[in-house]
Amino acid sequence: MKTTAKAKLLKFSQCKKIRPVALIQEKLARSRLLIQVESCQRAVLDSVNSVLNPIIRQGHHGLTDISLQEVSVPIEPDGHNAWFRLSYHGAVMAWWRIDRCTLDQLASGYYGSLATPFKSPLRSPSQSEFRLARKLMLSALKVLPISELDEEAIELELVANNTPIDAPINWSLSFAKGQMTPPIQFCMTEYLLGLMSEQPSFYQATAGLSEKLAQRLKQIPLKVSLELGRQTTPVTSLNGLKAGDILPMNLHSRCPVTVGKRPLFYAAIHTHEGQMVAKLTQDIFQQDDGDNS
Length: 293
What we know:
Layout: H1 26-38, H2 41-56, E1 63-70, E2 81-88, E3 91-99, H3 100-111, H4 127-142, E4 154-158, E5 169-175, E6 184-188, H5 190-197, H6 209-218, E7 224-226, E8 229-230, E9 250-251, E10 255-259, E11 262-272, E12 275-283, H7 284-292
Antiparallel strand pairs: 1-5, 2-3, 2-4, 3-6, 5-6, 7-10, 8-9, 10-11, 11-12
């Protein structure tokens, strides 16, 4: 019996990272997907800052830097940061980590006044903080190349335990240098990456393509052949042919002109200024129509 596949049982204690493969040539497709994700860095930073603009105009520091990291090990949420989980139709799309003091200060300035001093809120996030976190996460999602999402099906909840999260892509959004504020983290799941990989690649034709193509077609070289004569030879005589032999040849009274592999005209042979030329005398198709009539 021929063995075509082998399987190996992986023990949970080995902590091997397993990712489902759903694409043909998946490694190549994933590398392109990561390049596509990386190209969205500036757009994500600008989109999140656009949400914070009301308090940035009041003097609060905005986000100035963003970096992308591919994570190979699960991330364990820590208690001194607020972790939010964003789900779509029950499937986890992303996590958002923000320092509790920073979230309290941003929400206070966004929905109230920046006069509120920094503090360490041990309570659960307020409704204002929930709304702001949702705005920030949705702003980051909107600039990613995915289909338009139904916001009614998006759910945001607070992560209340330290269960490790599996997020292969981790964005880090940092405030201005010199600030003691920890960076915000935006962690993307495989599900969210899958939504990006399902997007068709839209090809935009070059302006004036039809005119350029028509012009290019006119410049394609074609082989024109002129047949002067033809001679029928028995197969048995081919064995005796050798260099130096003279073959009889019957010249055509009307020489067919072939363009590519298709005969189009009849021609007559003439000389002009010391050069042999062919004068087209008749269209083969017109001749055929005349014969049929």
